[in-house]
## 1
Amino acid sequence: MQLLIPFIIVTQTSPPSFHGSIREMIFHSGPMAKVVLLILLFFSVLSWAIIIDKFRAFRKIERENHDFLQLFRSKIGALDQIYQQTRRFYASPLAQLFRAGYRQILAEKEKKKQMESEYPDSRSTNNVPTEGEKERLLVVLDQASRSEVDFLERFLTFLATAGSVSPFIGLFGTVWGIMNSFRGLGIYGSASIGVVAPGISEALIATAAGLAAAIPAVMAYNYFLRRLQSAAAAMEDFSREFLGRVIP
């Protein structure tokens, strides 16, 4: 019985066996490492969902912007016909700018008709818009442009956050794992590679997972930011073209 006690103590304090595959290392990792990996998995999955959705959205926007510009430039002087067909271009920011501007023009005409009906002496045959009408139309176009930019910016902040935070979350998991490895050195009283290697390898998985979540998010954020700037420039150019067409 006395010989069994030392044997039991040794077997309870012996270092864990090394598991070579990544799946086994993740499965046998500690609770904190698993929490870190779950957080990074959440960031990665959601980032890829946003990337796929934004890529499809910007591709559709460019296609519909091109088709709408062809329609806008082909129907000279037929703003009402263009307005009736803008519903086909629901994803085009340029079409939404046109709809907002056209509704403002109709509102100004309705206001002018009411003014002329109430004050017949103010009736004028001059159809040139006044400076006030020009300013109000420009304000409406600017508001519509900002609204479209805000819509296109949705979820891009999450990509920036995931790209900047994920490496630090992974580093936290790595530091925590290395702390446990050195704690194991103190418990086992051995500095052999067999004691240190399993803990360090499991810890470094967190850093790799953090980089795997951050790199696509950062690259996608920079890519979509350039696409957003291009879309905003296209809206600004269209606003000038629209104003030049409706205001002589």
## 2
Amino acid sequence: MRQRIRKGILAFSVLMFPLTFFFLSPYVIVLSATTGVINGSAMVFGFLLLCSILFSRIYCGWICPGGAVQDLISGANKRNWNSKGKNLSKYIIWAVWFSFILFLWIKHRPLKGEFLYLYQMDGQYMMIYAIVMTIIYLFTISTGRRGMCHSLCWMAPFMVIGETISDFLHIPRFRLKPNPDSCVSCKKCTKECPMGLDVSHMVKSGNMDSKECISCLACVDICPKQAIGFGISKKRTH
């Protein structure tokens, strides 16, 4: 039932994507910064960072329309796309992109906030939307499950930073909780993970923390022995 609800929310998010695309755009935030404006996308990215301090990457697994689109496409290519090198690329892209935004904000001080700045549903908007959707489609088809989340996503680093802040300050946040003694190594959790993580190994090791985990709870719901739990807790110290 829980996964039906999650997939239903993601399906609705995809339907609303033409309207919400503006607030998730990596381009509009740059365009707004050139005029000293903190626009809606900047506010949304900041909100996601703050939320991740407590709720980790739940947004990615339950709400993100880009992730939902990839889940739909992954039926055509279920190959896992997950490694340190592939995951690193999104942080390099994010660092260059966000450094440029900070430069523009500093250059065009004083800043002002305007949530709907530049928001306009016109032909150019829909053209950009179509281009981005095509990129998501082609990249996912050529890489595999949530390939864009692993390698290109400009929003994930904000939430990873939020998780890192939470752990550094010992703030309890949403996380998976393994029970290694209950695991029978059926590896259903690994097969079900939309991010291609080796969940079975994570359970056996007693450490479920992963910066690539999107808290979708698919592994929790597929496990026949309830070897994976979840809740709000501090990072385990060994």
## 3
Amino acid sequence: MGIFKRLRDLTAATINDLLDKAEDPVKMLNQFLRDMEEDIVEAESAVAKQIAIEKKFQQQYLEAEEMVQKREEQALKALEQGNEDLARRALQDKKEHQARYDELKRQYDIAKANADKLRDQLGEMKDEFTKMKNKRELLVARAEAAKAQKQINQAISGFGVDNGAKGFSRMEEKVLQMEAEAQASGELVSKNRSLDDELEKLNKNDGVDDELAALRAKLAEKKQS
């Protein structure tokens, strides 16, 4: 029957294949379960109808069976009372009820077999639904774990080569450049200061030259006298 189609189609392999194509496996799993629940409700309705048919045939064939027994008893009683014509008519009616009983019993057996088959299929659907429901919990946990791992992997793959790391590298180069400029500036200041010191020394007179000149003059005067 068509109502059991998904029971055959929604195997674990089919679900896994569909999950590979799903953007959100959790949503897809929930949708699968909802579909299966709808199928189960539909199947339960079909089983209930088939059981009703089975019960109807059962009631009818039991009534026909009862009439067969009743007409036989009535025919026997009529015969005991010497009323063979009434006994014959009772047996004729019994024959009709017997034919009706045979047909109703046959229909009942068919209806019962169908009902039993549908009951078994419904049981399989419910078992499959329970398995898929339990598997959903595992798949959801695996999906969440995979999602978390993917996020971590993406973060790790970008760590050290993203803009932040590149920014650190640029700042390091800038600091090195600033240090070099500072060092060059210091050397230039040092050179300028050395030149200024030497030139300043030229202008400095500590008095030694003056004293030396005075001694020379004094010595020259002593030689003349």
